[in-house]
Write a structure and sequence with these properties.
globular, Cobalt-precorrin-4 Transmethylase, domain 1, Methyltransferase, Cobalt-precorrin-4 Transmethylase, Domain 2, 449 residues, 49% helix, alpha/beta, 18 helices, Helix Hairpins, five-stranded mixed sheet
Amino acid sequence: MPLVNLPRIEIIGLGPSADEYITDHTRQRISAHQHRFLRTAQHPSAHLVVDAITFDERYETSGTFDDVYIGIANDLIAAAIQHGEILYAVPGSPLILERTVRLLMSDDRIECIVNPAMGFLEIAWARLGIDPIEHSVRLIDGHQFATAAAGLTGPLLVAHCHANWVLSDIKLAAEDTDNVSNDDMPVVILHHLGLPDEVVMTVAWSELDHSIEADHLTSIYIPELRAPVGKDLIAFHELARTLRRECPWDREQTHQTLTTYLLEETYEVVDAIAALDIDDAHTDEHLIEELGDLLYQIEFHAAIAEQEGRFTMGDVARGIHEKLVRRHPHVFAPNENSAVGSDALVKSWDDIKKAEKAAKGIVAGLFDGIPQATGSLAYASAILKRANKAGVPIELPNPGAHELGDIADLGMHLLEVVAECRRRGVDPEVALRKVSNIQRQNAERHTDA
């Protein structure tokens, strides 16, 4: 069979900062191409790629960084298909923390040529005066610090610290424990390496996000964390794994056999919330305990799935993190058109959900997503809410129109009560539980008497 000539994307790196760190080969490759693209023009050497199309606008309009990188990769592939061959330039080295390059290299619609380039790491090691191999330094993306550094104590070189809020998130991820405080722990800020205004400074951990105005040329070096990131959650995760391996009862359980316990723990959390007293902090202890029991159920399911090679707790956490970011554009990608006010935010949430399902080829029905296992009162309330939102009529009986006879009549009257609760803004589950508890207390007093 004849070889197929795929569209080609040649990828170069623009070095860590100043022009002198760019190789002659890189300059030659820039000159060899007519169609040039830059991931971002926010780099000291970006001016060398003349007449280039940049993707800076995507950082302003996309909801998440994943959306940015996927969008850039798709645009580049489309351009390569159109022109046959294009040049793509990225800051630093193409093979160091460049998500778009990874996406392009894994796409079989194109051929990628990746040229070596000097990254910021070489200057960082020189300024720190360390051999990264001998010190076993781990390179971490600042956007993913809380998860990528979980369980690690260092040394860590953290890149992509392009804003003070990123530094703040990193600082908060390494929480103090009962016996350990990180406040005076040293951390090195590496800013504008290789430029005339270069800064290399050691500050206390508590001052990490207050010592410099971070930008896209800011990184930090953490010699050692006093306690691993997410220490308590990592220990809990390992406990769930250990019990799954070594406890005979835990080993026998399946997703199906745990269903009853999951429901029980959920209801116990609801009871603990109902028992909260704003004036009594001791009532928090009961809620903490019940939330822990519920969290273990989630860890248990993840441990089973991990053992079966299906998914992990990391997949669960990553999935809900990405979904919540995607569904809150007004928080993570605000603009002049962002939704404001409760009603607008609910509509925005619903629109995003519909778009997500449409992207997966799912045609959502009016009542899709209402769990069949929901209690009957809550289920009826959800059906009425969806129908009302869609303007679809639900037939309800007139008061006294039916005899209280068979199940259908009784069910219709219950539905009418639920509808009345909705009209008054009352949760039917809460209303029935409240009066049931009152009757229970009255009966218990009568019995005690």
